[in-house]
Amino acid sequence: AKTPSTKLLTSVTNKQPINMVASCLSLVSLYARYLHRSLSAAGLSSQSLQIDDLTTIHFWGPKPTSSTPKPALLLIHGFGPQGVWQWRPQIVSFSRHFDLYVPDLVFFGDSTTKSSDRSEVFQAASVGKLMERLGVNRYSVVGTSYGGFVAYHMAAMWPDRVDKVVIASSGVNMRRRDNGELLKRAGVERIEDLMLPATAGQLRTLMGLAAFRRAYMPDFLLNDFLDKLYSENRKEKLELLKGLTLGQEDTVNISPLQQEVLIVWGDKDQIFLLDKATELKELLGERARLEVIKNASHVPQIEHAAHFNRIVKSFLRSSPSSS
């Protein structure tokens, strides 16, 4: 016969396994350790550099002992978890062909500043200073979403340093009304309720817009993501959203780029709709081309990583066009 204590243990084991896992184990922390081992195996190490008196940038880059230089490539993350969480499939694939630099933008991860500037132009200037301090004088840039804003400004600011540009899922050409239309699609009243989720429900809404195929995640796992990846620097990240220079007018205020540009978009993107991509191609000039990935939403680099990687690697490794 079972004793009362045995019955209690059986009841807890049968009825509350998820709660026990949630209280004793962080799946996000476990994956972070796996992620860091993957990056180390790809030849990258975690580093920090004070780029000026006010700002320190954390990044993953080639190990100092690396002796076989390859073309330099910057991977710039979007609004959300720090860079390596958004680029792992690309890091593993691209590290064979490029010296990768994966910075955390200011107020993401361990990158910080005492400056009061919160614009994406400041982010671009900070990453540019990082590369200059590292002695990397020529590099290509891949940016997704918010990181695409940063990549665009870097290309515009330093045409002599930035070689090729990849803008993925990034409405660099957004107008003031686009934010209101996004809020309607999301069913929220404020942009921070979408881009800075504070509850499992808000994070589920963001993930529903960002991914084409929606997998159910229990609240305990979403709360783990919120605690580990979304809880820091919330005040400053809200200031970043409000500090954007792009999308503040009723008209588009961007100019063509001198570099070859690849635009990559998911055909089901609900953050920046596909018509933004077709317009962006025309605005960026004759050296820009568009690749659309089917059955993908806002994160094609994760949803269809192999396809995304083939497109981007082919573009980056091709000879310059004659145009």
From TrEMBL:
Residue ranges of domain AB hydrolase-1 in the record:
71-305
Any matching Pfam family: Abhydrolase_1
Q: Name one GO molecular function term.
A: hydrolase activity
The name this protein goes by in its record: AB hydrolase-1 domain-containing protein
Per the UniProt record, the source organism is Escallonia herrerae
